[in-house]
Amino acid sequence: MKRLESGTNYARYEMGELTVVALRDGYVDMPPSRLRQEGDRPFGSNLPKQVELVNGKLRLSVNAYLVIGHGQHVLIDTGAANAWDPTMGLLPEALREAGVARDDIGTVAFTHTHIDHVHGLVAADGSDAFPKLERLLVPPEEIAMFDEIERLARFRPRRLPFADGYELNPGITVVAAHGHEVGHSVFEVTSAGETLLIWGDIVHVPSIQFARPEITWEFDDDQVRARSTRRRILRRAAQPNFLVAGAHLEFPGIGTVAARAGTFAYASL
User: Fold this and answer.
1) What is the pLDDT of residues 13-48, one digit of tens each?
2) Residue 261: pLDDT above 90?
């Protein structure tokens, strides 16, 4: 996988016959208490030293990823638009910087239905962010959760479920990764002997959760399952010729994972 070009809010990569574009929606600052030890216990004053803070807060990048190939533009997650903090909502600008028209995007697929992943379906002015959208794919376990989001009400008749192993496009396959949310899913992108795991929220805080994958997140729906899933996906990612793309890894959020004596290390590409 080779980086071709980049700007403030995008980075374009070549991956065999596919193009992958990392898109920056912005960032969100969260209190360190969101990190949890086993038993859903916050760290308090014993926060590990390697945890990186900005003005006393955890700064989480918010990223989305566009896969272009086989005549299709497939967008994985859409950011928050104007539904959360004003530090987010940059996805439309990122697309403009990358030279991608919103009309080009025919498929949107969600890793899960949290606010910073789905609300960007609606632009800040209330219009459809992707006017030529043909397929809207939502984890089946989260259809009801999607339907509860009033902002997205007009999309309810259009959303389609997918299953573990579903091939949503040549070279893009769903891998179930439940735990952070009941239907949380990874999209495995394969081309020219390389595999990219677009993994949503497998890792929230890269400065600690690669080295200590047992650490969970306050908003994990099932912390025990999220912990197990993180280890499983990290082991998968540590294989030769595998890369990862994370919604909350520091932008552009694409890199490699190495296994080290039961822990893991991440290197940005």
Assistant:
1) 999 999 999 999 999 999 999 999 999 999 988 899
2) no
Identify whether the C-beta of residue 78 lies closer than 8 Å to the C-beta of residue 247. Answer: no
Alpha helices in 15-168 (DSSP H): 91-98, 115-118, 143-147
Domain residues for the domain of 64 are 2-42+49-268
Residue 237 Cα distances to 47, 118, 165, 258, 265, angstroms: 27, 25, 17, 8, 11
> For the chain, where are the alpha helices, taking DSSP H only?
91-98, 115-118, 143-147, 206-209, 223-237
Instruction: Report DSSP state, residue 253.
Output: -
Phi then psi for residue 221, to 5 deg, are: -60, -40
Rounded Cα gap, residues 74 and 184, in angstroms: 18
- Beta-ladder partners of 187: 174, 198
Q: Taking 90 as the threshold, does the pLDDT of residue 76 lie above it? A: yes
**For residue 259, how many other CB atoms are within 10 A of its CB?**
13
pLDDT at 224 over 90: yes
Residues 109, 75: Cα–Cα separation, whole Å = 6
The model's confidence at residue 260, banded by pLDDT at 50, 70 and 90, is: confident
Helix runs in 17-160, H state only: 91-98, 115-118, 143-147
Find the CATH number of the domain harbouring 97.
Answer: 3.60.15.10
Beta partners for 36? Answer: 42, 216
Decide: 140 and 147 in contact? Cβ < 8 Å.
Answer: no
Categorise residue 262: left if φ over 0, alpha if ψ from -120 to 50, beta otherwise: left
Contact 268, 250 (CB under 8 A): yes
Domain total in the chain: 1
Please state, rounded to an integer, the average pLDDT across all residues of the chain.
97
